[in-house]
């Protein structure tokens, strides 16, 4: 009897051990200032992104993925699972010379994952604090950081220019953990791809891996060379009519190729089958004006830094080898704050309380509707507040009008025939990997792209609603994804309800605390061996 019981207990323990979930690896790839119309998955053949498209087609392309409309807020939300305005990180992005950062009492994603046994690595952009050592990624849960701490870098010199009242200030911005990374050479997108591959290759498989690869691409670089790509890649984009857009297209090719290489590296390491891959943009593209990069949110309205769809409805996808259906779109609402609870679920843990994010992992896997109903975009410095609830979006306050129009239409020009989509797909690294792991690549329906494509019946004579301090605008973003018609008069009850939602959310808003100095002289690169290093310790 005793022997039998011991045996039974050991068998039960064995079963428990084998059913205990093994935490999956998480690879989170972030593109910078990437617009809706800058990937071929959204329907255009002007810029082919076969690796991104195939991950969407064999995973889940996210048709209604929303982010904050600016880098620093969206990265703050990504790291904390909280709306940027709930932690005072909303609005205009951080400069390198500003003493401000994500509050250090916030526990962030790599800290949670590290506690769960993950090794945690950041390759690329940070942009949520760099004036003090305590703000740096390696002080906040990342085992390693290789990349830039500020908004962007020159793709070859790795410098960032700031315009101060005294003139333009230049500094070197590429770091390895806490010190400047000297001796690096090459095109920055390639440099980051190689570094990400190195992290994967050197990873100890006994632990789960969290790799965040936050590319500089396709963000603009310093003036006047605002878009940069290797000449041979630009030459390969002869079909793109406008010169700036042609260089941008080459930047996208390098980004997409790099993603293919990362997927291949995961396969070669033998961990792809237990890895969830997410690819997102941090906010919409900047077609003109401040830090313009020739990105295009067409046909969506508005640019980065606005609450219109072009600023917030951005490319996104999630991929896992376990997704059963060969191809899918997931059209539910999903917000940048949702990644933290989703990743916690994937890691096998419960998400923290008191965050804005919702764990949508099971709904996404099962192709169920999203439980997310509402999303807020609040920028008390520019002076707007907007809410999406169900089919509707309400925008109030002051928006930057010059960034609130329909741009990028003129960037679509093609000379002659664009390159073949199918050829690009079949030559891509992800295609090769999918074949090797037995995915039915031949059965993938590329026409799924047409389902996600946004079409608008906008006429240039339409009267567009611009909100201001006396005027609200209400759009039905499901029927009118281009926000051309104000429907506030027809829907007074919806207006009242949504204003009430905003009123409540505004009471939870933590005001931005700007430092007394915008261009703090202590940050001057010439005081730090010409680098943008920490300057207060
Ligand atoms: C929840 O978060 C808010 C800021 O987003 C903070 O003010 C509040 O103290 C937090 N509450 C708890 C119980 O942690
Ligand atoms: C960063 O520091 C860690 C140890 O704290 C080290 O293992 C890692 O190699 C460093 N990374 C880089 C890129 O230097
Ligand atoms: C200062 O910068 C140069 C490159 O300009 C570099 O070679 C050198 O190692 C740096 N010195 C220190 C102390 O970091």
TrEMBL record:
Signal peptide: 1-18
Keyword Metal-binding set for record: yes
Cofactor(s), names only, from the UniProt record: Ca(2+)
InterPro entries per UniProt: Alkaline_phosphatase_core_sf, ARSB, Sulfatase_CS, Sulfatase_N
Gene Ontology molecular function, alphabetical: metal ion binding; sulfuric ester hydrolase activity
UniProt entry tagged with the keyword Calcium: yes
Domain of life from the UniProt record: Eukaryota
Alphabetically ordered keywords of this record: Calcium, Glycoprotein, Hydrolase, Metal-binding, Signal
Region (Disordered): 511-537
One Pfam family, short name: Sulfatase
Ranges of Polar residues composition bias in the record: 526-537
Residues in Sulfatase N-terminal domain copies: 24-348
Protein family according to the UniProt entry: Belongs to the sulfatase family.
Protein name as annotated: Sulfatase N-terminal domain-containing protein
Biological source species: Bombyx mori
Organism classification: Eukaryota, Metazoa, Ecdysozoa, Arthropoda, Hexapoda
